[in-house]
Amino acid sequence: TSYYEKYHSLEDIYDWINITTQDHPEMVQLILIGSSYEKQPLFVLKLSGKERHPKRAMWIDCGIHAREWISPAFCLWFVQYAISFYNLNYDITEMLNNMDIYVLPVLNPDGYKYTWTKNRMWRKNRSRQEDSFCVGADLNRNFDANWCTEGASKRPCDETYCGRFPESEPEAMAVANFLRSHKHVMKLYLSIHSYSQMLLFPYSCSYEEATNHQELNELAHEAAMNIRRYYRNLYKYGPGAKTIYLAPGGSDDWAYNLGIPYSFTFELQDKGQYGFLLPPKYIAKACNEALIAVKTIALGVIKKT
Ligand code: 0X9
Ligand code: ZN
């Protein structure tokens, strides 16, 4: 089995980032967008094809929740696929010729490292609070979208602790700053999680309907149809609040409110048999079906914008 059909430690992923950018300078550019609470670098890979104007861009982040190992595995898979199949596969070529693709492979490096060394089921980052012995905030509750209302917790010991204030966590702030400074080109935001096989879109922070709900729903429907058709697997889709639960402070809702008109959270395999502990032999299928969903949505967005 290949490198991409295994899970990798944080150190290995940093090595991979270095090698991948060095080996493909014509397509990949390395951008440092900030650092984590424990001072790990937050690297974004910018993928681009041949220049074509006007430039648009899309964003994919992985590993916001530490224990969801299939998520960073997908970001690596995606980058490798883009590099290998540019000018060979129509969809990825079309994507790269029309959009710069920014990929953040590990949004929560401290938490990810902790799941490899101390506690496999860790979810949050590793920031410390002055007034509590408990560690970490849920980075997907730390964005400024109905921050810390119902569906998040003010208690530092809880799994969905929202942090001291919106963007109190350096990882969330780095992502928010980068997206703010690129908001005029950014047309599509994707955040990769696991598990439960769902394609979610705004809103999760309230039961309100997104202004372009119908478009978002159609894109998600098309993506789910392609997964079913090509991989015989079922993905649910819909607005987060109605499809799973109210969960304020998420990156997808925040990015959408910033003005990025197409925003999705993917929950990859499985449906609970292994949960976060998805065995490596399932990585290929999980990533391929997610890839077809990314392609479907990105090509749809290119057509619309
Ligand atoms: O609760 C979450 O943050 C995500 N589910 S997970 O099991 N991976 O933790 C869902 C996120 C959906 N989007 C927002 N809540 N904004
Ligand atoms: Zn998650």
Strand-pairing-aware structural class: alpha/beta
Q: In percent, how helical is the residue content? A: 25-40%
Contiguous low-pLDDT stretches (5 residues minimum) are none
Strand order of the largest sheet: 1-2-4-3-5-8-6-7
Number of strands: 8
Q: Give the class-level CATH name.
A: Alpha Beta
Number of helices: 9
- Globally, the shape reads globular
Q: Round the mean pLDDT to the nearest integer and report it.
A: 98
Biggest beta sheet attributes: 8 strands, mixed
Tell me the CATH architecture: 3-Layer(aba) Sandwich
- The end-to-end distance, rounded to whole angstroms, is 39 Å
Report the radius of gyration as a whole number of Å: 18 Å
What is the CATH superfamily? Zn peptidases
Give the percentage of residues in beta strands: 15-25%
Ligand kinds? N~2~-sulfamoyl-L-arginine, zinc ion
Order of helices and strands: HEEEHHEHHEEHEHHEH
Instruction: Classify the fold: give the CATH topology.
Output: Aminopeptidase
Integer count of domains: 1
Task: Map the helices and strands.
Layout: H1 10-23, E1 28-35, E2 41-47, E3 56-62, H2 70-85, H3 90-98, E4 99-104, H4 109-117, H5 170-181, E5 186-194, E6 198-201, H6 213-231, E7 236-239, H7 240-243, H8 251-258, E8 262-268, H9 283-304
Parallel strand pairs: 3-4, 3-5, 5-8, 6-7
Antiparallel strand pairs: 1-2, 2-4, 6-8
